[in-house]
Amino acid sequence: MTQTQQTDLALLAFAREAQEKAYAPYSQFRVGAAIFAGGEIYQGCNVENAAYGSTVCAERGAAMRAVMGGQRFFDAIAIVGDSDAPTVPCGACRQFLAEFNPEMRVVMGGATDAVMVMTLEELLPEAFVRGYLDQDVSRDG
Ligand code: THU
């Protein structure tokens, strides 16, 4: 775990604001996310669907908005959920975020004041990133 900084708490506040917008009528578990990239903040919330599998997580919602804003490198993301313990990003979101900086700072909060800060590398070691595709892997088969 990494030490919490003042800027982490500031980003967390944006995630908490986004959490208010969550559309979670099925799970009642509201999640908010805020990405810091290129000096800008991009917020997202979870958006559920009657076809449960079509639900979009808060982190990916925020990432979509950051990319739409022209960003390709995310410095940090803050995530807040309704759990007592700080909410961690799901596996699919870890992979999705790794595309835009496998070493980004991940600030996690929940319903209490507890905050956990880690790097994405710690949450998803050995992420599959584009470098694997760029390699000339001319092999049999
Ligand atoms: N959820 C997120 O938005 N992000 C995560 O990383 C974990 C899960 C949402 C999806 C669903 O709407 C609700 O939380 C319960 O799984």
Classified in CATH, the superfamily is: Cytidine Deaminase, domain 2
- Would you give the CATH topology? Cytidine Deaminase, domain 2
The count of domains is 1
Tertiary shape: globular
Distance between the termini: 42 Å
**Helices and strands: which structural class?**
alpha+beta
Question: Count the helices. How many?
Answer: 5
Task: Please give the CATH architecture.
Answer: 3-Layer(aba) Sandwich
The chain-level mean pLDDT equals 96
Across the major sheet, the strand order is 2-1-3-4-5
Radius of gyration: 16 Å
Uncertain regions: pLDDT < 50 for 5+ in a row? none
Assign a percent range to the helix content: 25-40%
Mind telling me the CATH class? Alpha Beta
Q: What small-molecule ligands were found?
A: tetrahydrodeoxyuridine
Proportion of beta-strand residues: 15-25%
Biggest β-sheet description: 5 strands, mixed
From N to C, what is the helix and strand string? HEEHEHEEHH
**Total number of strands:** 5
Short description:
By secondary structure, the chain is of the alpha+beta class. Helix content is 29%, strand content 19%. It has a 5-stranded mixed β-sheet with strand order 2-1-3-4-5.
Can you tag this structure with a few keywords?
single chain; alpha+beta; Cytidine Deaminase, domain 2; 5 helices; 19% strand
